[in-house]
Amino acid sequence: MDNSAKFIGWAAGIAVVAAVIVFMYVGTSTPSETGPITIGFIAPLTGDVASIGSVARTATELAVEEINSAGGIDGRQLNVVYEDGQCSATPANNAATKLINADRVIAIIGGVCSSETAAFAPTAMQNKIVVISECSSAPNLSKTGKYFFRNYPSDAYQGKYAAEHAYNMLGARNAALIFHQTDWGTGIKDVFKQRFTELGGNIVVEDGSPQEARDYRTALSKVKVANPDYIYAPTYPEGGTVLLRQIKEMGINSKILAGDAWSDTRLQKDVASFDLDILYVESKGNVTDEFKSKLLAKTGGDQVPLCAPQVYDATYILAEALKKAGTDPDKLADAMRATKYDGVSGHIEFDANGDMTVAEYIVKRIENGTAAQVQ
Amino acid sequence: MEIAVQIALNAVIAGALYSLAALGFNLVYNTARFFDLGYGAVAATGAYAVFYFYKTLQFDLLSSIALGILIAGALGFLIEKVVYRQLRARKASQTVLLIASLGVLTVVQAIIAIIFSSQFQTLSRNIGASRIYNVYGGVMTETQVIILCSGLSIMTALGIILRYTLFGKAIKAVADDEEVAQIVGINSERLIGIVFFIGSAIGGIAGIAVGFDTGIQPTMGMTLLLSGVVAAIIGGMGNVYGGVIGAFLLAAIENAGVWYLSGEWKAAIAFAILILFLLFRPQGLFQK
Fold first, then answer.
1. C-alpha distance from residue B37 to each of B20, B98, B252, B270 (Å)
2. Res A27: pLDDT
């Protein structure tokens, strides 16, 4: 009894202190009409696809520097608060709550993973925060809300393209589907399966696992016996690396086709010694040499990964809309929807759902620790 | 035929990993009498210690592994001394100890993530280059063969120690009744410390084995812990041999389930079995 009273006393004390801290924090960051405009950024800076997320951060910094040195938004500087969404729902949601409530952002760039975006976008919509995702492609994000945009095509396009490419160009007639059960993985797998069977192809194995699964051996045992022409594997890079390793270890001869997540440079390096035939589909971007050299000068890497051109464009699109409409959420969303922008990732226009109106893809081959476009 | 062999092999490998996890967990539970969730963190620490020595500092393989096991054991011992012993001295209930151990798990995981990032990383240096064995149409990697052999030898060694040495008998005495054991002159606090060291070292081995087989990430301990706990409950809590049998049984059912259904079902199958056991045979296959 005594202990529980003590506990309640402590809990109450901590709650009061926390409340005071939050109020002080919120109190100091109320936006003014002349100060900097604060926007949020959410991407996986650690964990799955961190190599894509951290370059996305660099590309955003690059765009913001350029915008600010060119005078900012009508003289107001653009200020970005970067948060780690860890390619997963809960951390992304926590990050968004912090950005919205504590940093008082007026817009959020991100997330990269569809599971991040799906988790935090509803909260953002309720708070009338404009969200522009540079890389989330799950089909079910299309109906998110009035303030949601993405300058990355929905997987409704990617899954269809992958199925057609596999059937028509690669001559695949039998395919195994090994996918991650996430908004992205399941979404893209469904579209692939539908289109591939429509064309006359056969799905011989269909096996999903959680994103954090690291043992694909039993699923692969089934693949080995079915011996399909291709394994279509829309998986995230960390699990994907293990998957490829186990494909190699089990001596499976099927070729592999994957989704855009495998543009992760870390995966490409880690699987260099496996000697497997690996292709993946990626959104086509006409990345200019100028952008490439600017970005690589900052990252020190040798490749422009997926999402970097897109997030650079997203930052500019948002800045343009802010210049036109100011920070009022409804006006800002209207200005975003009216966007016609030719950026480093291609031409960008949004439909009523905030989706891209066009989508083009390319196929790349992973070889010798890097990826090159297949002609 | 070929697929049956491969599934059986997969089950054996998974079973070896689960049984290592269950062994250490059971040993600790047997003597300290509470659900030590911090065990998962200790296992992850062992794997990360090997990662640090082997991949960052480029030590040779054997000394890295030895250091990893030692550090896992030492951490378990330390946590026992600093946290659990203090609580036990205050006659804290099992629930309080359980919650404290959840705290330990969370804190250690967070520290690992801060030092090494939450990125998934591989332990082996030469992935894809290791030897692969063909067993009746199925395949096993060199790493897996080593895991299986070392797992079996640790189980045997532990079995012998518990049954035939004075130390093993003392553990049994403390497990049966701590007060009586103290009356006959067993220093139970010291003994529990040693048990934590050994149990955590075995946990470390489990973590290291997973690290070499697939890879490491800070939350790996939780997954390992859960399979260990389920295996221990199936086999009979606190029964060291039961845990091993439970582990292989769990692995076999999981893999057969994934074969007939699909990968989505793995966790659901494991926990459905757990619930069935709790409902209909709470004492497990083998009573203590």
1. 15, 7, 25, 18
2. 44
Inter-chain contact A273–B126, Cβ cutoff 8 Å? yes
Contact yes or no for B119 and A273 at CB 8 A: no
DSSP SS3 for A280: strand
Chain B residue with Cα closest to A252: B139
Lowest-pLDDT range, A180-194, B24-38, B106-120, B255-269? B255-269
B6 and A224 in contact by Cβ < 8 A? yes
A225 contacts in chain B (CB < 8 Å): 2-3
Handedness of CA A295, A299, A304, A305 (dihedral sign): negative
**Strands of A130-133's sheet, edge to edge?**
A78-84, A37-43, A107-110, A130-133, A148-150
Per DSSP, A77 falls in state P
d(CA B277, CA B272): 9
Query: Could you give the 3-state DSSP secondary structure of residue A348?
Result: strand
> Does B119 sit within 8 Å of A225, measured CB to CB?
no
The answer to whether B111 touches B75, Cβ cutoff 8 Å, is: no
Test mutation, A217, A244, A248, A266, chain B, max B CBs within 10 A: A217
pLDDT value, residue B171: 87
Give the Cα separation of A184 and A68 in Å (integer). Answer: 34
Where chain A has pLDDT below 70, the residues are 1-33
The whole-number pLDDT of residue A29 equals: 44
Give the Cα separation of A328 and A128 in Å (integer): 9
Domain B2-280 has what CATH class? mainly alpha
Q: What is the mean pLDDT of chain B?
A: 89
Q: Kindly list the structural domains of chain A, giving each domain's residue range(s) and its CATH number in brackets, ordered by start.
A: 26-154+287-359 (3.40.50.2300), 156-284+362-373 (3.40.50.2300)
Indicate the pairing of strand A370-373 with strand A361-367: antiparallel
Split at pLDDT 50, 70, 90, the class of B140 is confident
Higher pLDDT, A165 or B123: A165
Measure CA B124 to chain center: 20
CB nearest A47 (choices: B118, B255, B259): B118
Q: Are B64 and B54 in contact (CB under 8 A)?
A: yes
pLDDT band for position B45 (cuts 50, 70, 90): very high
**Domain spans, chain B:** 2-280
User: Rounded distance, CA B208 to CA B215, Å?
Assistant: 9
CA B270 centroid distance within chain: 16
With CB atoms and an 8 Å threshold, state whether B132 touches A209.
no
